[in-house]
Specification:
- By secondary structure, this protein is of the alpha/beta class.
- The longest helix is centred in the middle third of the chain and has 22 residues.
- The protein has a domain of 225 residues: Isochorismatase-like (Rossmann fold, 3-Layer(aba) Sandwich), CATH 3.40.50.850.
- β11, α8 and β12 form a beta-alpha-beta unit.
């Protein structure tokens, strides 16, 4: 039964936190720790009966003049982990950044390899620690379910057999490795007018162009796989962006999901605004952004730590942020059956 309770949001209901430690400080290689000094403790927000998953979280309020932290008690059986866009790019499966000037994912092979290290060292261990404890682990990918990925991954519509998975892996390898990953080179010259040379310059030579010029035609229609840096379990579910948010919402609700721990890429783009991004999910579910299990794109920088911190901080105006070390499972694992969204 849905009940309404009063939650204090004014200073009378907030307790100042003295000498607070930095937030998101467990993985400083990936996320610059947040050192806002005005910090307050609020009462518990999510308080499920029979809760077995503790999730401390925070948000920022300009009006409250600082960060507000709060404990939450969740039922793991009502909880899903979603990883946004774990693209298998430059990871040996065959889907490669086009040369000499193509862009995909974090937009250069060097940056893709750096992000892959984060996937291996931070997100994959986190998923493994809660798989079989939370109700669902899901990954979102671009496009629609296609014949190859239908054989590789569980989806809203069904689950492949082990034989089908092996067949799909071979078909994926053949399809991806037979594609020509050669695009056009950078322009050798530009035509600039005397009155608007800067506008002309960027119109002809933008900082990010993922069209057919540099990413050859057909590149974005290839079956993008889940990265090999994730140990995908047969019970994990793949979300296809092309099926739309209503299908995802229905699937989660059919499976009793009320809470989402959101991980993945990129904090400033897909993590916020694609099918499984927090702008959609937070309308219908209790969403916690796992702030050290995401990376923002990082143009003109050798590290994503500062851009990630900045975009997570901005998101915290209207989202709750947690971190891996603040998520604690207290129950006994029971794997629940996955129901179709149909």
């Amino acid at each position: 039964m849905r009940t309404i309770r009063t939650f204090p949001s004014c200073y009378g209901g907030l307790t100042p936190i003295r000498n607070p430690k930095p937030l998101l400080a467990d993985f400083p290689e990936w996320v610059e720790p947040i050192r806002e000094t005005n910090r307050f403790e609020a009462p518990i927000l999510v308080d499920d009966p029979d809760a077995d998953l503790l999730v401390r979280a925070w948000r920022f309020s300009y009006n409250a003049r600082g960060i507000i932290e709060m404990p939450n008690k969740l039922r793991s059986k009502d909880t899903a982990i979603i990883m946004v866009h774990p693209w298998g790019i430059d990871d040996g499966q065959g889907w490669n950044t086009p040369e000499p000037a193509g862009v995909a994912d974090f937009c250069t092979p060097q940056k893709n390899h750096l992000a892959a290290k984060h996937t291996r060292s931070v997100i994959n261990p986190f998923l493994k620690s809660l798989r079989g404890k939370v109700s669902l682990v899901l990954f979102s990918l671009p496009g629609m379910e296609d014949p190859i990925r239908k054989k590789l991954y569980r989806s809203f519509k069904g689950s492949p057999t082990e034989i089908e998975r092996r067949e799909g892996a071979e078909e994926l390898k053949t399809r991806l490795r037979s594609f020509g990953y050669r695009g056009d080179p950078l322009p050798g010259s530009l035509k600039l007018s005397s009155d608007k040379p800067i506008a002309d310059y960027f119109k002809q030579f933008p900082g990010l162009d993922s069209g057919d010029k540099y990413d050859p035609k057909g590149f974005w229609e290839l079956p993008i796989p889940v990265t090999t840096d994730i140990d995908v379990d047969p019970v994990d579910v793949v979300i296809y962006d092309g099926e739309g948010y209503p299908a995802l919402k229905n699937f989660l609700q059919v499976n009793g999901i009320r809470h989402v721990l959101l991980t993945g890429y990129a904090t400033d783009m897909c993590y916020a605004r694609t099918c499984a991004g927090y702008e959609n999910l937070s309308k219908d579910f209790n969403v916690f952004l796992v702030g050290d299990a995401t990376l923002a794109t990082f143009p003109a920088a050798a590290t994503p730590r500062f851009t990630t911190s900045a975009h997570i901080s901005f998101a915290s105006l209207n989202q709750l942020v947690t971190q891996i070390s603040w998520i604690e499972y207290k129950g006994s694992a029971k794997v629940l059956p996955v129901r179709s969204g149909k």
